Amino acid sequence: MKNITIPLKIGVSIQSALVFLFVITALEAFSQIRVPFKQRTSQYSPNKKIYNVKGDFCMIGNTNLTLANYTDNTNNNNSEMIYVDVDNDINTLNSSSATLTFSTENGAIPSCSNIIYAGLYWSGRARATDGVSPNTFTVTKNVTLPPTPVNEDPIIHHGENIIYTQTNMTVRNNGSIVYEFRGNNSVDFEFQNEIPYIRYRINSGNWILPDNQQELIDGNIRSVRFT
After folding, report:
1. CA 65 to CA 30: how far, in whole Å?
2. Sign of the C-alpha dihedral computed for residues 123, 126, 81 and 88 taken in this order
3. pLDDT for 119
4. Rounded distance, CA 206 to CA 183, Å?
5. What is the maximal distance between C-alpha atoms in the chain?
6. Is the dihedral of CA 100, 103, 109, 112 positive or negative?
7. What pLDDT sits at residue 219?
8. Contacts for 192-196: CB closer than 8 Å, 24+ residues apart
9. Is-above-0.70 flag for pTM?
């Protein structure tokens, strides 16, 4: 019986070892230790790293990256990630937050809670597109900036679009020359040969007479400036 039992034990051990090695070599590590973990201490007890209190232990966390197409059942690895940005500020690339609320479990009163110790820990990992993980990396973000005012005096003819805008101008003559601007709003300017030279209306509303009208003549071009 011994001659039969011993080879069986060796065979099982070798088979287990092979399976164990196969499992190990099939796994890929995603961690990157840049700064070793170090326990924090309170300034009131700098030599104490383990606290024994009659209370509760709470932990909150936030993330700077999230899945581009997030689902509760999708792994983060080998998937497209995007930066979290919660502050609605176009000047920031990445912002996140987490809120700690005191427990009300078993009738606990939040206003009676007292924080004994709070510690902040963070971790991060940088990886270049070529698979190398450098200590630094660069990030760019496309943002929509507010429009820049443009002060120009272009000459627009009948049926043309006004540059820098989505507005088209047409001219019609029904006793008085009317310039029609059609874009986000509808604006009509009526031009006549006597004072007041110009009046306008918005979205077919009442006609408005602008103040400080000044007639300008440059060669065969006659214009009116107003404020």
Report:
1. 15
2. positive
3. 75
4. 19
5. 126
6. negative
7. 82
8. none
9. no
Report DSSP letters for the chain, one per residue.
Answer: -HHHHHHHHHHHHHHHHHHHHHHHHH-------SS------BTTBTT--S---SS--------SEEETT--TT--STTS-EEE-B-S--TT-S-B---------GGG--GGG----------------TTS---S---------PPPPP--------TTPBPTTSS-EEEEEEESEEEEEEESSSEEEEEE-SSSS-EEEEETT---B--SS-EEEEETTEEEEE--
Peptide bond into 36 cis (omega under 30): no
d(CA 55, CA 216): 83
Amino acid of residue 116: I
pLDDT along the chain (227 residues), means of 10: 40 41 44 65 79 77 86 80 86 86 86 79 66 66 74 75 79 77 83 80 87 83 78
Closest CA to 179 of 153, 155, 150, 195: 155
Q: What is the pLDDT of residue 131?
A: 60
Structure tokens belonging to residue 206? 């009442």
- Return the sign of the alpha-carbon dihedral for residues 75, 76, 77, 79: positive
Q: For residues 177 and 171, is the Cβ–Cβ distance under 8 A? A: yes
What is the model's pLDDT at position 22? 40
53-81: buried (b, 16+ CB within 10 Å) or exposed (e) per residue? eeeeeeeeeeeeeeeeeeeeeeeeeeeee
